[in-house]
Amino acid sequence: MALILLRASAFPNSERTSGTMALIITSPLRGWAAPLDSVPDPVFAERMMGDGVAIHPLDDIVCAPCDGEIVTLHESAHAVSLRSDEGVELLIHIGLETVALKGRGFTPLVTPGTRVLRGDPLIRFDLDAVALAAASLITPIVVTNSDGFTITRRIVDRAVGACEELMALVPVAPVQRRWSDDGTVVAQTVTLRLPHGIHARPAARLAECARAFEGDVHLVLGDKRGNARSPVALLALGTRLGDNVTIEARGNDAERALAATVALLETDMGEGASGAAPAPMAATLLEPGQIGGVIASPGLAMGPVVRIDRAAIAVQREGKGVEVEREALGKARASVAGHIAARAASGSTQVAAVMTAHLALLDDPGLASAADARIAEGASAGFAWRGAVHDQIDALRATGNAHLAERIDDLIDIERQVLGVLTGARADAEDAPPGAILVADDLLPSQLVTLAESRPAGLCLARGGPTSHVAILCAGMGLPALVAMGDALDAATPGVTLLLDAETGCATVAPCDTESVAFAARIATRNARRDAARASATDRCHTADGMRIELFANLGSVEDARAAAAQGAEGSGLVRSEFLFLGRDSAPSEDEQHAAYQGIADALPGLPVIVRLLDIGGDKPAAYLPFAVEENPALGQRGIRVGLAHPDLLDTQLRAILRVQPVGQCRIMLPMVASVGEIVAVRTIVDRLRGELGIAERVEIGVMVETPAAAITADLLAVQADFLSIGTNDLSQYVLAMDRGNPAVAAQVDPLHPAVLRMIAETCRRGNGAGRWVGVCGGLASDPLAVPILIGLGATELSVVPGFVAEAKAIVRALTLKQAQAHAHAALDCSSAGEVRALVRAFAETIR
Ligand code: PEP
Ligand code: MG
What we know:
By secondary structure, the protein is of the alpha/beta class. It has 5 domains: about 170 residues, Glucose Permease (Domain IIA); about 80 residues, HPr-like (Histidine-containing Protein, Chain: A, 2-Layer Sandwich), CATH 3.30.1340.10; about 120 residues, Phosphohistidine domain (Glucose Oxidase, domain 1); about 100 residues, PtsI, HPr-binding domain (Enzyme I, Chain A, domain 2, Orthogonal Bundle), CATH 1.10.274; about 280 residues, Alpha-Beta Barrel (TIM Barrel). It has 28 helices and 35 strands.
């Protein structure tokens, strides 16, 4: 776009209103003005940085909002601050988390010290590229010295043009400082750990900290000195990672102010997790040259790196008429819907599930009406669609819920597919040579589905989360994948060889010959072992000394049940019945549910099928169940609590299960149990329904052990329950108090943590002691290294992903119970998950 000089002489810097001189700040951008509270970042929404207004930009030039002087311009050029001639300090921060773009997409047009007039261009940015890469485009404009000026008028909730009035300010009388300077001056030097130096968000946090004390705090870098109460002064220091910054505090609370500031600076202020891609916590000790990551899909792979970059899709802003644009958007959405439906029909169960979710998003009436409203205002179909999708993304991000934030990829995916049709641009990278290791910052589900057709060997992502749709698809395809590998993945340049170890969670870039040969041998051994295991997949499973262990499979559909039967599964220890309930407008009827459960039972003739009652709520919302917004969904209406709160839903599901023939093949399992009363309540309902259906036979009812409460009262639950099955995914998150879906802590939610193992041991001891069998259906049972420990701790049933049944049987056959018990007890004595992982790897060598 041509650089237009927007100098608005119509606006002097001030106007006189009722005797007071008001300072006028004009909008630096054309866009939609919104209240600061709507910014999905507490630093701005909670006014840590100061008061102001935010703009959803529609233009790509930031211009001066008043006459003044540029104070700071971050080296990434995503933020600029200036001081007006009257002393107002203003910060304009383009988008959120844009510091992580390291200047990509931003062109600075001024430098610190430049004298500017209102309307002078300050920064040009690539609206499309930044929209694609940033957390959000919303641009806060804040008065950072709010103690000197107060906003008397602000424009929000309407469109503004560049250089149109945005805020009016009046100066406030300076507050008399209350502190007494007893002459105390204390100082300490710290080395900065912030990956991008003190940029806007850390500056806001430091200022907030400094304002809590009466005395003065200054930060000093070389010959530059900034008052810690002023975010702009801190930005002006121009600090970088590794700088030695001295903190000086004076006044009667100097010691405390210094300690608090140092303590804050010695952390990464959350920047590691929310700024650039997080540096992952590797579950294994990394060698030089290795990059750690979170295992999204286990396995080993080696091959040449193929980088998949997501090219920006440019769209025209102005439409060619409302009807033309409406029709274009309608056709594009219909075309994408057809494409997705075709993929769903030809893909695996997992592909179909993800495609169904995408179709639901594409049809979302809210999205369609938001786009339509923009078209009515004159936007092009593409611009309107992009704006509507990004509003949804901002809303998801604002929830702070990591599970929901992972759905952002799905929204971007449908955004790009529709824009691809509208503009003719290629939305996806479509091919890579067979055997390649795909490396990307992040990947969209549709990209993965397309790329998978060329049979890649593995996938490494700098970002991504372990519960994202991409992770689920990889696991379903058996494609080894590591996610959340961070910026270190930049070292994986195209063509270089990469060893992907998604067993221990690390990758080696450009290995030496010896490393490559050893890794190839590991892959060969792994494949040989898997082939051998498959040859005896249908044999019954016992330990080497004769202890019967039942090897079941976790299922989400009839297709899964057929696959599990082919793998030699001896039944199903977990049918995730939510597959029937999610991604639709109303709950499935009794007949629909009955047909699905009967289909699964028929696919596993004569074998036990344990149907878990609806586990919905928390991270698995269903549109037709009105859940109140919960601050902590993981601790709210989840699992059996939902069923008991919606008796009709529970009755319908129980009737559908009880009607499956032969009676008793389907057993019932309660999710998220915390109290004995819950199983007593369900048993009462089951007994009533058996009476109504004329079923004389007793039907087994068991509980999932997913909460510490259930683990520690396993003996009490066992009085009422016929069996107990440990859900290690949730048990780990609740024992460790770490959200299993939050990529920032995902790598530490390790079910091999000794605390989790001790909970499992306690469950087995108490459950078995009360005469009930205890199994494990959580993800830990599908970890080959964990199987011996689980058997040693007393689990007699394992329910695993269908593809692992044969291998799990082979591991159990190679063990004696005595060996497993000694090994499990050693694991319970380890002091960390890392130590347990080292122990299990060493043990695996002894039984191979
Ligand atoms: C578990 O929590 O281990 C489990 C099997 O349930 P979910 O479906 O929540 O992973
Ligand atoms: Mg669970």
